[in-house]
Design brief:
single chain, alpha+beta, Phosphorylase Kinase, domain 1, Transferase(Phosphotransferase), domain 1, 5 domains, five-stranded antiparallel sheet, 16 helices, globular
Length: about 625
Amino acid sequence: MPTADATLAARPSAPDLIPGYRLEALIGQGGMGEVYRATQLSLGRTVAIKLLSPELAKDDSFVARFDKEAAALAALSHPNIVSILDKGRTPETYFLVMEFIDGSSLREVIASPVLDPGASLRITLQVCRAMEYAHGRGVIHRDLKPDNVLFDEQAGGIPKVSDFGLAAFRDKETPERFHLTESHIAMGTLAYMAPEQKFDARKADHRADIYSLGVILFELLVGELPNGSFEPPSRRKPGLNKRVDMVVARCLKTAAEERYQSATELIADLEALVPVSWTTFRRKPDRAEQLRFQAKRALRTAIKVSSVAVVLAALVVLAVAAIRAKSPRPIQKMAGEQIVTEFITRGVVTAEGRREVTELRKSVTIGQGLDRISMLAYGRVVQFDRGALQFSLGRSDSPVGRMVPDLMDIEGRAVRAEANIETEVLAGSVWARAKRFLLGVESHPRAALLLVGTPGRYAAVVLSGRRDPVSFEWALGERRGVTLASFNAPDDGMRLELSIDADGELSAFAGSGNDRRLIGEPVELGSHWRKSFGEMPIWTLGCIDGACRFRNIRYEVEREPKVMTTVSQNARLPERKAQATSSRPASKSTSSKSTSPKHTAVKAKAKKPLHSKTR
């Protein structure tokens, strides 16, 4: 619990004050009470116990606020949020039992000299994920600040949001007893509060937390609070990506409607800025390591300038040139053709996602959500980590891999598949590197998003790891082709899309928003385009060499609208009469009646809607 101005003096507590727990040390003290490190006797594990001060335990409003924090934590279960284990009361006070966090607070980390912009962005992204989860369950923190973010060292140093004592509930089903804030009352910490929260905390919604996240990000990058008209962080931190300035500025807009409207939007912009190569803080090398590095560098320099090295290098060059001259160049297949080849099954991957089904659409999103989406991996191992599907490359893996989702009922008249795609060059095995050196065959990672029908039929949009142009490929029976975009792929990847509309126009796009651009010209397949694929195609992800990451994956099918065809009761009545009459003994009158033109017309009219066509 973060320190604050205490309203009561620390008091000794008996070890058996709370049955089943042994209080061991006071670790925090604030306006509402004290926090102790304790041992849960039944399991022998270390926990944190928050005690409401006996004076405030007599005040119903503070007891309700204490209950509100328990209710907020009980509604949340997330790796970046402190978990609640128990709650209760004693004859003197009330208590909460929470998981014990053994690390420092973000307030202490801000002062660390090893904190770099990459680590600051990563920490903020993890706190954003916690808030996205809380907001999705109707909980608004309203007191986000560095003191309320603790680092769990036992869990690898991940940040966890704590202290939901000022939380608000936006779920209509939540009891009114938890809506404690009165109108025109400001609650929170002034430096991190949104403008609307300073005036009336009750009317502040989840966008107030987004403002607080912007303050925290600015303080992590600059080391100061953004007071008044602040300078962009990139001016204070040379080398910082200027896109960070836009993220901070949008979070700190005075009007709530001008900020990010959800934590999900903020996460989407932050993910593109967070470096993927570091998972912990960089550590500065000590003096001994610096000396070893300098010695190695001096040795390499000496070898380079020696005449022996020059002679050996010349011999190696000649040998390699001779080997390359005698070795035939391998034929490079199209990426899609390599990916749809049959491979051994590597296993089933389960990812977080969301299924949505309406009368006209069916969609599947992978990356975030409460549904579990199963997928089959072929050729290479696929892992789901931090909202992304990643192809790794082990010793026993094929250089090519693909991943196919396990989906049912995907028929429709139009389809669209899209994903954010990144590639990374991997060093590979010693033999692979020697092969590249001797034969001059340089492999590079390629990632593809495909629509695949029957074997050998597909359409693909491919991202190259060498900043080559994005390519659009198709192999649909006799119709085959490839076209290149007029622009190169950026280093940090991009969003790719394949779509087929109801008229059978197959198109490929790269980029998103205002940067979304068509790749080449669409391929006209006609309204019966499914015949070109042999069946309704399904999206597939593929990777060739290196590492490939896929984020924010979405597959959407536009379904045929259902038309209910009904026959009026008046139209069916003559039919039933005619059937009843035909079952009686035949006579002249009944025979003429059952075959009269009038009845024939009525029956034809009744059946006509069954033959009507629907577009």
